[in-house]
Design goal:
Layout (H helix, E strand, L loop, with lengths): L7 E5 L4 H12 L3 E6 L2 H9 L5 E5 L5 H15 L4 E4 L15 H26 L4 E6 L12 H21 L4 E8 L5 H4 L4 H10 L8 H12 L10 E4 L7
Parallel strand pairs: 1-2, 1-4, 2-3, 4-5, 5-6, 6-7
The structure holds nicotinamide-adenine-dinucleotide.
GO molecular function: oxidoreductase activity
Family: Belongs to the short-chain dehydrogenases/reductases (SDR) family.
Keywords: Oxidoreductase
């Protein structure tokens, strides 16, 4: 079920965290990878560990030319695209709605909202050729409020709106589009942000009473990409240890 032999998989934000783990898991399962990130050094380190074919490109998802070039690389080097994972993202310092400055909103929406939109814009023409899958990485903050993370939450909600819209617009092209909404996971995005104390208190109240391993989140993404998962589209799927269940 999780065999991705010769599938061409594009991943943004692939230099770290979920993106790097996804690259490893897809590569182990036979996929050919097109990896983009603003962190070129990190990308090279990830690619050096992969067992299968891959290409890396500096890609800032806020720049349309970069999004176009990443999709074009899939077409030129591997002959098309089967799966796209729009994963690039980052957080912002904790602050109430009154405390957040305009720049925080602009950067959050540029990377998460515009970045996913531009990514899909250039991935869809390739996916339309034979059908395929898009996964957009939103967050628990994309399906509920996130105190002190207002700009992040708003931008992650935008991803869910884009996902549902694309799912409806492109269903007849046999393209499934879903968003994933993970709870906090100890990737550099969280460990480098100084919010871990707050996270710990939430974890104690969660049904599974622990954070996910990075691999638990990315394994769920692989399941969603599987051809066996052929009827699920337009969903925002929580990967959250049960937190959203109550
Ligand atoms: N870790 C969590 O707790 C968590 C929870 C929910 C959602 N997410 C989301 O998961 C995704 C991956 O995050 P992660 O936890 O692996 O963090 P991470 O910091 O380990 O990785 C994020 C990657 O995105 C890249 N990136 C940032 N801005 C970019 C841009 N403009 N263009 C291209 N690449 C860019 C970074 O360089 C980095 O390599 C993000 O969208 C994040 O919001 C993370």
């Amino acid at each position: 079920m999780l065999d991705f032999t010769d599938q061409v998989v594009l991943i943004t934000g692939a230099a770290s965290g979920f993106g790097a783990m996804l690259a490893a898991q897809f590569s182990e399962r036979g996929a050919k990878l097109v990896l983009g990130d603003i962190d070129e050094e990190g990308l090279a380190e990830v690619a050096a560990q992969l067992p299968g074919d891959s290409v890396t490109l500096r890609c800032d998802v806020t720049q349309e030319a970069d999004c176009a070039a990443l999709a074009q690389a899939a077409d030129e080097l591997f002959g098309g695209l089967n799966i796209a994972i729009n994963n690039a993202g980052f957080g912002h310092p904790l602050g109430s709605i009154e405390q957040l400055d305009e720049a925080a909103y602009d950067t959050m929406f540029a990377v998460h909202g515009k970045g996913v939109a531009l990514g899909m814009k250039h991935q869809l023409p390739l996916l339309k050729r034979g059908g395929g899958v898009i996964i957009n990485v939103s967050s628990m903050a994309g399906i509920g409020g996130a105190p002190m993370l207002g700009a992040y939450s708003a931008a992650k909600h935008a991803i869910v709106g884009l996902t549902k819209t694309a799912a409806v617009e492109y269903a007849s092209d046999k393209i499934r589009v879903n968003a994933v909404c993970p709870f906090f996971t100890l990737t550099p995005l969280v460990t480098d942000s100084g919010i871990f104390d707050k996270v710990e208190a939430m974890v104690k109240r969660s049904p599974l009473r622990r954070l996910a391993e990075t691999e638990e989140v990315t394994s769920a993404i692989l399941l969603l990409c599987s051809p066996a998962n052929s009827y699920m589209t337009g969903q925002a799927i929580a990967i959250d240890g049960g937190i959203s269940a109550f």
